[in-house]
Amino acid sequence: MRERRWAPDGPLDVGLALQPHRRGGGDPAWRRTADGAVWRTSRTPAGPCTLRVSVAGGEVLGQAWGPGADWALETLPALLGAEDDPSGFRVRHEVLADVVRRHPGLRIGRTGRVMEALVPAVLEQKVVGQEAWRAWRGLLHRYGEPAPGPAPEGMRVIPEPAVWRQIPSWHWHRVGAEAVRARTIATAAWHADKLEAARTTQELDRLLRALPGVGVWTSAEVRQRAFGDPDAVSVGDFHLAKLVGYALTGEKTDDPGMLRLLEPYEGHRHRATVLVWLSGRRPPARGPRMPARDYRAF
């Protein structure tokens, strides 16, 4: 076991910083235990690791196990948003100003790991979360490695790129992922080294969108998590435009309308949408919800 203590230079909400990496209830790569600690697995450049993050006395305590333990602790501050710079962010709407006051510890962190953000993002394309998270759990339980160290029971480490390329079509079907998403993940796995070597969010965006099956939404979702991009807007999200429109104007809008509303936040548009989510303002629910499909029955 390796250990590191880190004192952030200002307010920090560890839970908010790590929450974007959780993929639904029962995520095999993310757990919060009864003591408030967050456990997370990762496949680092040095190998798999398990990271436990807790807070005590104003300091963050990171404990890590596995070949990637040293790498995980070295990058712990970045994961928790130490490199996030909100200095250019200016609140233009009172509803967001209220969220900023209530959540002074909000920071956008970065994992530096592309594939572990890309695979679940592709699984979430054009489906409800329940369907995508079921597939994510099934794939990690079948093909992931057991988490190093004393991790909570059932935790797994995302497979290596070579494993994603070799998953048979019938098992994609069994976990509920159809051929299009399976093919997108397998293709990305062939280019994993190039994706992981990207140095800027602009370079990563270009590489991602050159892959068949990866568009604006998927690229943004990956760059938010892997690079902590505060401006990567998830254009094409089923809910986001409606939420932004309702929170900022009281009326739902579409993607072009959302981008117009976010223009004053250029450079921090993703940060603004995070604040919208935290505001809790939601348009009244009308009509049936999008159903969860089950490809396993096809």
UniProtKB/TrEMBL annotation:
Statement: the UniProt record of this protein carries the keyword Lyase: no
Keywords: DNA damage, DNA repair
Protein's recorded name: 3-methyladenine DNA glycosylase/8-oxoguanine DNA glycosylase
